[in-house]
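Appendix B. One record, verbatim.
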Amino acid sequence: MSLVDELKSAVTPRAALLVVGVFALQLLFITSYVGALHHPKPRDVPFGVVAPQRVSTQLVAELDGLPGSPLAPRAVADAATARNQILNRDIDGALVVDPAGRTDTLLVASGGGTVLSSTLQAMLTRVEASQDRAVRTVDVAPASPEDFDGLSAFYLVVGWCVGGYICAAILAISAGSRPANRERAIIRLGVLAVYSVLGGLGGAIIVGPILGALPGSVAALWGLGTLVVFAVGAATLALQSVFGIVGIGLAILLIVVAGNPSAGGAFPLPMLPPFWNAIGPALPPGAGTWAARSIAYFKGNDMTASMLVLSAWAVVGVVVTLVMSSLKRKPEAEPIAAEVGPASGTPTP
């Protein structure tokens, strides 16, 4: 065979297209991660101000006018209300002004991200110093000492997501590239559901009782993990049912390339660029990370939107998988692997 013939035999047009796709995925991976994480800075961080009305109006205007708009300040009635709003995840911090003294109190919640709480502390220290005032910091929802930089929730969710799409990819290609019929699709979804329950439980036990990395209810984390794994897995099965093996690459694009850097893990959402800040809550890694931190540090508050996002991914994934499998060939026209001989017309031994 000539070199050209060998090349055509070694690299088929389909393989060449897949290699081009992988190359594009590689460049998108670099662009997404570096673009999201290379220069974090706060933007429009929800922030409360507790002070007498005259002082509050002036201080809110001053904080709102800081260069780069790092804060989105609002007046809050009192310190107790500010604490409750932080625990409800309505705001990320608050400054409580002491009108009788020269030391004010900054309320933060490092459980929502230690980088953000540290950034708020440094920023408000500078602002207060410019007014010849001091600030002391009170952490109302502190991160666990075993949860360095508040990253454990993010890594837990990343692990659940990886398990979901790899499990689904294996199930999707378990009989080669042949499309699933409806019965096979139901079986695969059932296996994925069982895997999700076990994967969710395993992750919750590891980060809780075994490593002590995250506080909070193990049962709640188990339920969240089950939903995350199943949502990602169902979405992967759906994409594979529509696009074939390319769908697995699309799942990686959505979950790994777009989802992980926008999840608010290394840097909380208010510190990400606008594009990643916008897409993060709508993707499983971001929704899962927010919910895991809510369970661990915020008494399960403000999880509704995240749970609806994950549920939507799961439901749409199941529906698309079942609809597409119903449109494929009938089971009797689709022999199982054991019925196919090693060569055409040759019976299986």
